[in-house]
């Protein structure tokens, strides 16, 4: 019979569980999540299990990365299903703090990341976001004290921000990215996909198809600006409100205009109905 993970909800219980699990210097990996787990999260857990003796998953819907108009209140919460999935995967520990544990009365310290956090992508449309992400991830790292942490590449800018922060602040955590897990039709798995109506769900894979077609044109020698402009037109004509379709340097997220300027990542963000979707591919 598969053993359920230890569930810690206070710092004292977390520290006791960690001490017990990491006897004899067992390595510990952390997969930070906001719950509503899908196969993309599971893929990160499986990567973590290959790299570390023990695996912890955090489940915390972080209010500081949501703006007032965003979906904090309606963000999907599926605790029983999440624990069942994590039990099946053999996770050792679930860290499930409440808001007052993470942000007690008088909390007054926040991280203001720069570098990839100011690339003009997600930060342009969600200026609050990466400060909230950096602060909560730094807290998770200092609370759980993992040797390594796994983040999905779907949130590519976030991955770069967290990697830079862990390095700059000497947090002693190796940040590792996991490949995007997709539905059969190419749509990147996301907890927010449940918001899509049937018609919107049928349209949503246009983003991935456009990324692939844009990459193909660029690799075939087409001008980057023309390929991006045509891709943007396709996305808008499909019914999306496009925030960005960009070609960026894959490491520092700087704008680039040719393959000679470095490894290329194509990134897109667009809203269909009330649901905002993001995706990216290596060009």
UniProtKB/TrEMBL annotation:
Give the protein's function. Catalyzes the condensation of pantoate with beta-alanine in an ATP-dependent reaction via a pantoyl-adenylate intermediate.
User: Source gene?
Assistant: panC
Q: What EC numbers are recorded for this enzyme?
A: 6.3.2.1
Record bears the keyword ATP-binding: yes
Its subcellular locations are:
Cytoplasm
List GO molecular-function terms, semicolon-separated: ATP binding; pantoate-beta-alanine ligase activity
Residue positions binding beta-alanine: 65
NCBIfam families tied to this protein = panC
Extract the InterPro entries matched here. Pantoate_ligase, Pantoate_ligase_C, Rossmann-like_a/b/a_fold
Cite the entry's keywords alphabetically: ATP-binding, Cytoplasm, Ligase, Nucleotide-binding, Pantothenate biosynthesis
Q: Does the keyword Cytoplasm apply?
A: yes
Q: What is this protein's name?
A: Pantothenate synthetase
Lineage, top ranks: Bacteria, Pseudomonadati, Pseudomonadota, Alphaproteobacteria, Hyphomicrobiales
Q: Kindly identify the residues recorded as the active site.
A: 41
* Annotated GO biological process: pantothenate biosynthetic process
Family as reported in the entry's similarity comment: Belongs to the pantothenate synthetase family.
């Amino acid at each position: 019979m598969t053993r359920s993970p230890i569930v810690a909800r206070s710092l004292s219980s977390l520290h006791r569980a960690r001490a017990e699990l990491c006897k004899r210097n067992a390595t510990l990996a952390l997969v930070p999540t906001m719950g509503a787990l899908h196969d993309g999260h599971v893929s990160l857990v499986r990567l973590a299990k290959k790299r570390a003796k023990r695996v912890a998953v955090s489940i915390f819907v972080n209010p500081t990365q949501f703006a007032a108009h965003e979906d904090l209140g309606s963000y999907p919460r599926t605790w029983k299903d999440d624990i069942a999935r994590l039990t099946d995967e053999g996770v050792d520990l679930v860290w499930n703090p409440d808001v007052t544990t993470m942000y007690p009365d008088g909390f007054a310290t926040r991280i203001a990341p720069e570098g990839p956090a100011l690339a003009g992508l997600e930060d342009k449309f969600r200026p609050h976001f990466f400060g909230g992400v950096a602060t909560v991830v730094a807290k998770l790292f200092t609370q759980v004290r993992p040797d390594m942490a796994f983040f999905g590449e779907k949130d590519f800018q976030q991955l770069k921000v967290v990697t830079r922060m862990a390095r700059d602040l000497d947090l002693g955590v190796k940040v590792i990215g996991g490949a995007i897990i997709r539905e059969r039709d190419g749509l990147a798995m996301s907890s927010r996909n449940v918001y899509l109506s049937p018609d919107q769900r049928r349209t949503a894979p246009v983003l991935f198809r456009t990324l692939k077609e844009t990459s193909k044109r660029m690799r075939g020698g087409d001008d980057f600006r023309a390929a991006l402009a045509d891709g943007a037109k396709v996305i808008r004509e499909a019914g999306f409100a496009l925030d960005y379709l960009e070609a960026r340097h894959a490491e520092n997220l700087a704008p680039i205009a040719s393959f000679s300027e470095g490894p290329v990542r194509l990134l897109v963000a667009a809203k269909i109905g009330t649901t905002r979707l993001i995706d990216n591919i290596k060009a």
